[in-house]
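Subject: Sanity check before I submit

Could someone independently write out the structure tokens for this chain? I want to compare against mine line by line before I put it in a report. The sequence has 117 residues.
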Amino acid sequence: MCEVCERKEFCIAKPHKDLNTVRIEHDTIKAEKTRSEIETNKKTNVSSRAAIEGTIFELKRKHGANETRVRGLIKTRIVEGLKITACNIKRFLIYMQEKRTKVVENATYFGIPVSQT
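---
Independent answer below. Compare away.
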């Protein structure tokens, strides 16, 4: 049967003397499912990874996440949490400032544009 198959060169069956066998393990199926999920969601995975790496870069360079001046797990978690909070507050303030600028640029008074001087 395998001798006349048109997909013989791509077959994963191992030929033996009396019969051909195909062994499929659970890990192989799981790995294939993971590969297909990654391939279908590649664009979202790449974009979220870039965003995460940007955040880590900012925490390391701007807030000193590489240099911890305390010892102990609890103290380190507190200090790093405060650094993350500072980063988020800074981002929020920038967001609010940009939002305020857009609102002021588009300001009208009874339908008449208000000029900024």
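---
OP: Matches mine. For the report I'm noting this point. The two ends are 86 Å apart (CA to CA).
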